[in-house]
Design goal:
The structure is a single chain. This protein is mainly α. The protein has one domain (about 5-85). Helices cover about 80% and strands about 0% of the residues. The protein contains 4 helices and no strands. The longest helix has 23 residues, at about 30-50. The radius of gyration is 16 Å and the shape is elongated. The model has no long low-confidence stretch (mean pLDDT about 80).
């Protein structure tokens, strides 16, 4: 996957992830699974449509999947969700 392909897949996956979140399909509990699955699906669909499944491209697909998943997770709000969880574990102040 080249940069243009990664950007194209990222845009579609981020938009779909945000729509599903807005519709209430997946909350914070299932958000990580949804992001990883949609990223994988996006990369697989792109690879299938471009007809470029060959062994020498395998790492490019892996790197593309990680990039798409990281972008979608950031937009989904995983950093905020993780900080909320961490904040709940702090000891009470006196």
């Amino acid at each position: 996957m080249d940069g243009e392909a990664i950007l194209t897949v990222t845009t579609a996956v981020v938009a779909l992830t945000q729509l599903l979140k807005w519709m209430g399909v997946a909350g914070e509990k299932w958000g990580a699974v949804m992001v990883l699955a949609l990223s994988f699906l996006g990369v697989v669909l792109w690879g299938y449509s471009s007809g470029s499944y060959v062994r020498t491209e395998l790492f490019g697909f892996f790197a593309g999947w990680i990039t798409v998943a990281t972008s979608a997770a950031g937009v989904y709000g995983f950093t905020r969700a993780a900080s909320d969880i961490t904040a709940a574990r702090k000891a009470p102040t006196q």
